[in-house]
Amino acid sequence: MTDSLPTPDTEPQATPGAAETPFRRVIKSYVLRAGRTGPGQQRAYEQFGPRFLLPYRPEPLDTTAAFGRSAPLIMEIGFGMGGATAHIAQVRPDDNFLCCEVHEPGVGALLKLCGEQGIENIRIFRHDAVEVLDHMLPEQSLDGVHIFFPDPWHKTRHHKRRLIQGPFVSRLARHLKPGGYLHLATDWEPYAQQMLEVLSAEPLLANTVADSASPFAPKPAYRPLTKFENRGLKLGHGVWDLVFVRR
Q1: What whole-number distance in Å separates Cα of residue 86 and Cα of residue 69?
Q2: What is the spatial distance between Cα 83 and Cα 43, in angstroms, rounded to a whole number?
Q3: How far is CA 130 from CA 29, 34, 42, 120, 181, in A?
Q4: Which of 183, 196, 216, 3 is nearest to 97 (CA)?
Q5: Residue-number span of the structural domain to which 96 is assigned
């Protein structure tokens, strides 16, 4: 990879089955957080992992075989505990959702939801989304990308760690089909403004609300309010959605 960003101080642990590829000084889509995988999540790995987890391999992914059908492909990067992801997949059953998350408890939680609720249009990589993009998905292969509430890294000296930066957005844009969309959401206004600047500077992307009074999009109906978001709204905190499309 030629594009680079300084990496967090925490050295990531290798994902089982991942290629022996150096992670330092390259764009990454995550920061590893400490977390405990509960017994229910661990059972979900054992019971539902073979059905919904995809192994990372540095070779093209056959998405039709992975999902058992051909359908529009939406990638979600960093789904947390997976509640919103499960909801979106259920209200959009005609789309396939390829979801990347390295946080083990979150992956276990989404596996549990998929298995117990019979959600068939989700597949999960417990791996860095950048490597999945670079080595498993060709350019112009995605119909959409979702990134909801990435870490805002509030302190100025940490802004370089933010996920939404020019080189990463350029990568995402190249992987979108013409007419495909990139949907971001954040509850931190300074980060929303940075997101807007970065997306607006990408020549392959166009704002879907460029002709409206605000450059930010109304919340699409498919994105649910999380408990955290709903609590913030009641306290008067804002949430900003951005929806750009590939030219």
Answers
A1: 19
A2: 18
A3: 6, 21, 26, 24, 18
A4: 183
A5: 53-246
Asked whether residue 181 is assigned to any structural domain, the reply reads yes
Q: What residue has token string 């059972």?
A: 43
1 CB neighbour count, 10 Å cutoff: 14
**Is 33 contained in some domain?**
no
Q: In Å, what is the CA distance from 213 to each residue of 36, 150, 209? A: 45, 26, 8
The answer to whether residue 136 is domain-embedded is yes
> Is there a domain that residue 217 lies in?
yes
Q: Which residues are catalytic?
A: 151
> Mind listing the pLDDT tens digit for each residue in 147-165?
999 999 999 999 999 999 9
What's the first-to-final CA gap in the chain, in angstroms? 25
Q: How confident is the model at residue 234 (pLDDT cuts 50, 70, 90)?
A: confident
Strand, helix or coil at 85?
Answer: helix
Give the type of residue at 166. Answer: G
Token couple for 90? 């259920």
3-state helix vs strand vs coil in the chain, percent to 5: 35, 20, 45
Report the predicted TM-score, pTM, of the whole model to 2 decimal places: 0.85
Pairing state of beta strands 142-148 and 73-77? Answer: parallel
Question: 106, 123, 125: which is closest to 32 by C-alpha?
Answer: 106
Q: Are the beta carbons of 154 and 189 closer than 8 angstroms?
A: no
The 10s digit of each residue's pLDDT in 171-189 is 999 999 999 999 999 999 9
| DSSP-derived secondary structure letter, 12 | P
Q: pLDDT by residue (tens digit) across 39-57?
A: 888 999 999 999 999 999 9
pLDDT attached to residue 37: 75
What's the number of domains the chain is made of?
Answer: 1
